[in-house]
């Protein structure tokens, strides 16, 4: 469970349509994410950015009483009534931080994910995006202990060999 100050945001990955960016562009896949300040990130490919989609993910992964920072997307309305302190910035008004209220950490993570997808994989289909998002999530969450990655990978491989 994430706790403390948690930033929540969504991004669109994939699809190319000249002149059209963001939510309305064809072929885009929505990835929702939350990051605990100075902590771990959690991502999930979602079908849309509706409240009925995002709220259950937040409730299932963020401890009640935590502070959740978001942008102005209306889908985040109602988080205060569910036991969270909800603070937001309004990107539409060119507001990106109000003191300690911002979503800059998750925005930075999205930039890393998108660079990684386009740099390493060039293109990722929406069908497989969840796997790539989870790979980048794992790497990010292992950043403070990179020495654990290889032994964990090796132990997984050896377990699969034992199962066969």
Describe this structure in words.
The protein contains 4 helices and 7 strands. It has a 5-stranded mixed β-sheet with strand order 3-2-1-4-5, with helices on both faces. Strands 6-7 form a two-stranded antiparallel sheet. The longest helix is centred in the last third of the chain and has 18 residues, at 104-121. By secondary structure, the chain is α/β, with parallel strands linked by helices. The protein is globular. It has a single domain (5-163), classed as Ribonuclease H-like superfamily/Ribonuclease H (Nucleotidyltransferase, domain 5). It has helices at 51-61, 104-121, 129-141, 149-163, and strands at 5-13, 29-36, 41-46, 67-70, 85-88, 97-98, 101-102. It starts with a strand and ends with a helix.
List keywords for this structure.
single chain, alpha/beta, Nucleotidyltransferase, domain 5, five-stranded mixed β-sheet, 4 helices, 35% helix
What is the compact description of this entry?
The protein is an alpha/beta fold and 164 residues long.
Provide the low-confidence segments as ranges: none
Rg, nearest Å: 17 Å
Helical content stands at 25-40%
* Proportion in β-strands: 15-25%
Strand line-up across the major sheet: 3-2-1-4-5
Order of helices and strands: EEEHEEEEHHH
CATH topology heading = Nucleotidyltransferase, domain 5
